[in-house]
Amino acid sequence: MSSRAALDVFDRRESEVRGYIRSFPTVFDRATGSTLVDADGREYLDFFAGAGVLNYGHNNPVFTGALIEYLERDGIIHGLDMATSAKKAFIEAFERLVLAPRGLDHKLQFTGPTGANAVEAALKVARQATGRSTVVAFTNAFHGLSLGSLAATGNSHYRGAAGVGLDDVARLPYDGYLGADIDTLDLLEKMLDDPGSGLDLPAAVIVEAVQGEGGINVASAAWLQRLREITAARGILLILDEIQAGVGRTGAFFGFEDAGIVPDVVTVSKSISGSGLPMSLVLLRPDVDVWKPGQHTGTFRGNNLAFVSARVALETYWADSAFTDAIAAKSELLRIELERIAADHPDEGFVVRGRGLMYGLACDSDRTLAGRISAEAFRRGLVIETSGAFDEVLKFLPALTISEEELDRGLAIVRDSLDVVLAAG
Ligand SMILES: *Cc1c(COP(=O)(O)O)cnc(C)c1O
């Protein structure tokens, strides 16, 4: 049976809401590292990494071993927010390997295991801590699809599904939205200080250091620093949504790290467990941690298997700089090749942008091009997604553990796919 025929049951029984299955129409069966294998045994190179969940690759043996061992000794699987040895070991590792080296004194809140739930918690606690309701979010932001997080998300395709008002969020232009020469924070600052602007003093500003779903838009270090200054001076909390840009994706553990800023609140999810098991965290500066016991609860806050692999990920990859050095080298390869592709196709007017192993090849002159390259690449054995408001950006999000050979091989497929798509007209 071909994989296409094997998709029948999904067409017949799975809701119309299904998404990625349409871009990558096959039945996946197993995976290791950066290779996915479908039920027919066909291999695909993975430049998608579960939308940033699989920064350490699929079924990384470092995690698999630890998880199997934990299962075999009957370690606690589900713990609500009770203390467990797996959770204790994770918190200690996070304190030692992430917080302490960066001089961060944040407390850890474990939320329900989706990114959206972490964002909900961040927005709630910011509103509660300040007693204010407005939150500033940026153009092309993606913060999740539950109502509070959706209100902060920009994309009208997602917003249109809400069916109720998405209130208390003010939208301002992200870095670069009005072109390279305009500092969009001039507008925020002016509006905050002008009682006629119509912008109420916000509880918080929520921002991604690099916008993933919104089209791989990169905030400059200077812009993030100025945003930190503007918010700090006015008692506005700064929330960094690190759900996609965090955990090494931009080349450092946090996407905001290179800017040298300290956010009041940080949301982390996607790759934090390392193994792909669901897990979410909110980091809170102690003075923002105004929660009352059990005030933001959730049944699945204690996914202890996730805590086990999350701890192993920190111990394996974040104890020294070897991992980030390797990401930097691969980032350079990726950037150079994307710039070469752009230079070789001047008519398409490609724009290359990104940091670390989070890159976009944007084509505004033909917004269907990225989608057509993605489809052709899939036929040639590469899984690569698009992003941006018009899906006009081909999104390079390989595992951070990908080999240089795999990176080259995937890039060659992208090049070939582009040639085929352009030749087809
Ligand atoms: C994926 C993502 C979310 C939402 O996470 P879910 O687990 O899908 O709810 C929020 N913010 C950013 C930046 C994301 O990339």
UniProtKB/TrEMBL annotation:
Its cofactor is pyridoxal 5'-phosphate. Its EC number is 2.6.1.76. It comes from the Bacteria. This is Diaminobutyrate--2-oxoglutarate transaminase. Coiled coil: none annotated. The keyword Transferase applies. One of its GO terms (molecular function) is diaminobutyrate-pyruvate transaminase activity. Belongs to the class-III pyridoxal-phosphate-dependent aminotransferase family. Pathway: Amine and polyamine biosynthesis; ectoine biosynthesis; L-ectoine from L-aspartate 4-semialdehyde: step 1/3. CDD domains: OAT_like.
